[in-house]
Amino acid sequence: MGRERLASRLGFIMLSAGCAIGCGNVWKFPWLTGQYGGGAFV
Known about the structure:
The chain is an all-alpha fold. It has helices spanning 9-21, 23-35.
C-alpha cells in the first residue's frame, strides 16, 4: 500500500494553517474587519 502525498507544498501550508487557526476564525475575520471599518485591509 502506497503512502498518500499532498499535491503541492502550498496545499500543505494551507492545510496546516487551517488546522492551527480553525474554521471559525477563518470565517469570522472578514466579518469583523467589515464591521469595524477594515474593509480596505481585506
